[in-house]
Each structure stands twice: as C-alpha cells, then as structure tokens.
C-alpha cells in the first residue's frame, strides 16, 4: 500500500503545487486534501486527476480554525486510514493586511533593504477577528487547529517500527518580537501572522522533544515570497504582475523571491524525500530560487534573534554563557507547548458542556 499523505490548505497556492509535485514523484501515494471549502477541494482534486489520472486522491472537510471541525475530521481520517506517513500543516491566513509604506520607504535606504524584502519585517500589520470558539482567528488557523490535529492523529503518526513526518509551512515573517508567551493568541498586538508563525517554529521544537522517541519528526519550512491568494490580499494581483520584472531583478540580491507556488513548495517536497532521522530539529528549511531560476532547499538555524537570550547575556555578569542558547529556546518552546495543552483542555471542556447542554 502507498504512503498516506495529508495536506491542509491543499486547494490552492503552495499546498496545491505540493500535491502536484508529490503525485509526479510517486503515483502510488494516497493523497488526502484537507480543505474547508468542498467546492474548491473538488476543483483541486479534479485538476490533480487531470494531470495524474490514476492517482488516489481523496478529500476531507477540514476547517482548521474550528475545534469541532478538526475533531470530526480527525475521527474520519482515523476511520479511513491505519497510518499517516506525512502530515503537511500548510493552511494559513493573513486577514486584512496593511502595508506600512512609510516603513517600506525608510527601509529602502536603511542598509537593511534586502532583509526587509526577504522577511517583510516591520512592514505588515493585520486586523484579527474571533472564531466561533472564541479564539483569535489567525492563531486558531495557523497554529492551534494544527496542534489539535497532530494530537488527534497521534495513533496514526506513532506506529512502532515506522517513522512519520509533520511538516509546517512557516514563514520568514515569523518574528520573535511579535510573539509573547503571556499572549500566545496575540490578542493585544497587530502582528498576529508573525506571532503565529514564530509560534509554529517553537511548537515544532516541542513536538520533536515530545514525539521523536515515538518515531514522529517535525520540521518547519519557509516558502519565500510566493504569488498566491494570500499575497493577492496584500497587494492586488495586477500590481504584483506590474512589478514582476522588478521582482525578477531583486532575485539577483535575495533568493527568497520564489514567486511561483511550484518553487515555494520546494522545501516541502525536499523534506518528503529525506530520512526524518537525519533532519535538524533546530533548522528551518528554506525554499530558495536563484537569480537564474534554479530551485534549491537550504537549512538555516531557527530563531537566532532570541531576545530572552540577548537580555540574559547582556546582564553583567551574564547568568548564562552563550552555549546555553539552545536550552533557553527549548524552555520557551516547552512553555508554549504546556500553554497549548492547557488551552486544548479548556476548549474540549467547553465543547463537552455545549454537547451536554444540547442533549439535556
Ligand atoms: N504566499 C507566500 O508568500 C507565503 C505563504 N506562506 C504560508 O504558506 C501557506 C499556504 O499559503 P499560500 O499558498 O500562500 O496561500 P493560499 O491562500 O493560496 O492558501 C492557503 C490555503 O489555506 C487554506 N485555509 C485557510 N484557512 C483555512 C481553514 N480555516 N481551514 C482549512 N483550510 C484553510 C485555504 O483554503 P481556502 O481556499 O478555503 O481559503 C488555502 O487552501 C500558509 O500557511 C502561508 O502562511 C508562508 C510564507 C510566504
Ligand atoms: C517592489 C516590491 C517587491 C514591493 C513589495 C513590498 C511589500 C509589499 C513586500 C516586500 C516583502 C514582502 C513579503 C511578504 C509580503 C509582501 C512584502 C511585505 C510576506 C510577509 C508575505 C507572507 C509571508 O509569509 C512572508 C513574506 C515575506 C516578504
């Protein structure tokens, strides 16, 4: 039987491009598309079957921002399959983005222009909303729903003698400065996207600590800047098309302008072909495209700008030598993991109470 792969947010952009690449590589795969919108999911399945008529593609209705939907979908997946080899946690949103053009103009002449183009740091804010579960929507979609999904699919991922991979689509926009352990949902800030992506980097570390002994390996990837529905929400598509020659030119200076979903999916696809035991849990795997248009994957250390480390090390005398850095990263990721477990407990209790309310 072929390997089982579940991809969330598979009906468009990077997720759909990944599915195409996976099927081109391995026609025996059992590919499951986790999508919230069934019409768009059917269209994606149809497109995949046109290029791979013999492929085994199925759909699971999954809204990762809804606790009820995640629990129901996981139950259905456990019913359909007895294994899960790859879980791609790719669905993501950046609602109501606002570009700070003043900061962009300043950044152009700051000596950090390339960094700004590759990370979007300091340029973007978003207006978040609440889900029906009362959670911040960006947090619920980009992080918490996926966390719950991993927890629910534990029996399929952890199988004696077999290994499996959990792969997060993170972002170069993941910023330590946007994330706060006391406000993991980012209720009080205007950069929920950066916060949620930084949290996914931390969570991946925690998942490795928790699950490696059971054969589950978690990695994070960074797709670069890709033209998808997400980026068309930041600037209209005609404007992106208009500045495309400029972006090709910028590729000479930053290889993070992957631009096409196929290129953005490079690291996701590359991880599919790796032995998970050989992967570095502290690396973030970047999809990169050279000035000449060649794709490659490069691991870069995750969270090198940890301000807690800096604060501690700047104290005199420093309570920690520099080589304690990884331990402190580990402490933050453990703390996040505990907070997510506590939140999971709360939402499960709330759902139980609601169910009891309906039956009595
Ligand atoms: N484009 C870029 O430059 C970058 C993107 N990324 C990340 O890549 C990932 C894929 O985004 P991208 O392909 O660019 O954008 P798209 O908007 O094309 O894809 C996002 C996918 O996520 C799905 N999705 C959104 N919310 C939910 C939900 N609640 N439940 C289930 N599915 C959901 C969307 O479904 P629907 O069609 O129903 O909305 C869609 O299939 C995201 O995690 C994004 O943050 C990271 C760095 C850069
Ligand atoms: C000449 C143009 C390239 C000017 C575009 C300016 C900005 C709108 C963009 C520069 C860097 C971009 C970027 C993203 C969005 C658009 C920019 C801020 C992302 C934040 C999109 C989502 C991500 O996950 C990472 C991207 C990093 C770079």
Describe what you observe in this structure.
The protein has one domain: 3-Layer(aba) Sandwich (Rossmann fold), CATH 3.40.50.720. Helix content is about 45%, strand content about 15%. The strands form two sheets. The chain has an eight-stranded mixed sheet, sandwiched between helices. It is α/β, with parallel strands linked by helices and about 350 residues long. Helix 3 runs parallel beside helix 6. It contains 15 helices and ten strands. About 40% of the residues are buried. Strand 7 (about 165-170), helix 8 (about 190-210) and strand 8 form a beta-alpha-beta unit. NADPH dihydro-nicotinamide-adenine-dinucleotide phosphate binds near residues 12 and 65. The site of ligand LHIR3OJJ has 17 residues, from helix 5 and helix 11.
Which terms would index this structure?
two-stranded antiparallel sheet; alpha/beta; 5-alpha-androstane-3-beta,17-beta-diol dehydrogenase (NADP+) activity; binds NADPH dihydro-nicotinamide-adenine-dinucleotide phosphate; globular; 15 helices; steroid biosynthesis; binds the ligand CC(C)CCC[C@@H](C)[C@H]1CC[C@H]2C3=C(CC[C@]12C)[C@@]1(C)CCC(=O)C[C@@H]1CC3; 360 residues; 10 strands; oxidoreductase; EC 1.1.1.270; Rossmann fold; 15% strand
């Amino acid at each position: 039987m072929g390997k089982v792969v579940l991809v969330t947010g598979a009906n468009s952009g990077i997720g759909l491009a990944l599915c195409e690449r996976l099927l081109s590589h391995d026609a025996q795969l059992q590919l499951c598309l986790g999508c919230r919108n069934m019409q768009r999911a059917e269209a994606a399945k149809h497109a995949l079957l046109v290029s791979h008529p013999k492929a085994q593609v199925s759909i699971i209705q999954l809204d990762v921002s809804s606790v009820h939907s995640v629990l129901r979908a996981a139950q259905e997946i456990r019913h359909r399959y007895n294994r899960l080899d790859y879980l791609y946690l790719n669905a993501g949103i950046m609602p109501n983005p606002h570009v700070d053009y003043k900061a962009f103009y300043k950044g152009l002449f700051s000596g950090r222009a390339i960094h700004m183009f590759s990370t979007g740091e300091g340029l973007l804010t978003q207006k978040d909303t609440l889900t029906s579960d009362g959670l911040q929507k960006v947090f619920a979609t980009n992080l918490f729903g996926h966390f719950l999904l991993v927890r629910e699919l534990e029996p399929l991922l952890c199988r004696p003698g077999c290994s499996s991979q959990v792969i997060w689509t993170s972002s170069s926009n993941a910023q330590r400065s946007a994330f706060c352990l006391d406000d993991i949902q980012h209720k009080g800030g205007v950069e929920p996207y950066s916060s949620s992506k930084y949290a996914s980097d931390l969570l991946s570390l925690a998942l490795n600590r928790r699950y490696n002994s059971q054969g589950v390996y978690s990695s994070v990837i960074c797709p670069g800047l890709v033209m998808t529905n997400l980026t068309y929400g930041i600037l209209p598509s005609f404007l992106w098309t208009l500045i495309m020659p400029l972006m090709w030119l910028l590729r000479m200076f930053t290889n993070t302008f992957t631009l096409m979903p196929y290129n953005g999916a490079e690291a996701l696809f590359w991880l599919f072909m790796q032995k998970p035991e050989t992967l570095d849990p502290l690396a973030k795997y970047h999809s990169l495209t050279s000035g000449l248009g060649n794709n490659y994957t490069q691991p870069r250390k995750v969270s090198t700008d940890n301000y807690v480390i800096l604060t501690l090390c700047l104290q005199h005398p420093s309570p920690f030598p520099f080589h304690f850095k990884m331990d402190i990263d580990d402490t933050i990721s453990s703390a996040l993991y505990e907070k997510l477990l506590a939140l999971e407990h709360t939402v499960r209790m709330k759902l139980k109470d609601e169910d009891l309310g309906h039956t009595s």
